[in-house]
């Protein structure tokens, strides 16, 4: 059994200073395939560059991946002492009392250069042996976990048919289709093509939540397409987010929100809620730290942050924080706030819960799928409701907050090892489809690339909520 991971996105994004959420997912998959004994000598990698498909040497990919890990880790640490001091000053703390004496960030010139590793990947020394030796990828499982390249149906068709691959895809969300008002013009059409590619070619589909699978199934129904065998496996929270109860704050109460500043994240409801709190409580109102890069169409939010004098002493924008500092802030916060209008998953929310920090969030099914009943759920447009909840959680004797802390003590959040324990079994099933399909109802591979309801036999159809037939169908639980 051979597994081929598409790392096109990692190559394309390798020059960036820090990774996005999807970058982190593809990186986690690459490191798992390279490091797990289960895939020793069976993991391969592919990249599609300039309309060509390149098979890459696993040993050289390993060097590239580890260089990229170190580069991104050190780049995240390049936040300056001045920025950390701004946070401490905003929270009325003595310098160094929250973040300690941070060393000087590494100079940009000392960051690992990923270009030599990329050049080695595409050097004749690595590529020619691949081209000259007999192809051994026939029947391999092809993994695409980033949506990269899926807006070219013909490109995927050519690769899959030309190399006899069995495609598996990780679907992150359908937000461009369900909420096109929150994406750039043209993104909805591109994402529709991606989802059509997934539905028409997949041997198996992985969804990060039941909500995502339900939306994919609804899309298939509307477009008269079938749904290949599918399973839900939540993405993993890094091990650093966990272990230990949050530190009891000895500083003025503050709240944290994490996410790109863009319309979908709904920062406006928080800013208006804070205006209400400041007008009611004056200097005693709690504070808000906004952690996230500036996205697109955010002018109204930025105008309020920069120009509203009422909020000047109570709201601080912090474009980015390294994970170690973000964890420290989360542990001190009265709660972490997520007022989003739509989410495919919402990993920062689950990272906060893994730290046993209370969360107040929009009442979204994507959150409920993993978080269960523990969070405080609110309507994303209920500004006064958000203001009341924040005021309540800011009280030192808040019973609502104490109640959530008790629930969080029994929560077990999914980790990457949990995710991959499921994925490894799915890969084995897909790779060995001929043998498994002999068992009634266990598995049937895709009927053809142009998959539609008319081409799917009765035993092959998998409806929303139904998953691959093995014990991993319900891999995680919100409680121990």
Automatic annotation (TrEMBL):
CDD domains: GT4_MtfB-like. Keywords: Transferase. Residues 249-372 form the Glycosyl transferase family domain. GO terms for molecular function: glycosyltransferase activity. The keyword 4Fe-4S does not apply. Coiled coil: none annotated. This is Glycosyl transferase group 1. It comes from Ancylobacter novellus (strain ATCC 8093 / DSM 506 / JCM 20403 / CCM 1077 / IAM 12100 / NBRC 12443 / NCIMB 10456) (Starkeya novella).
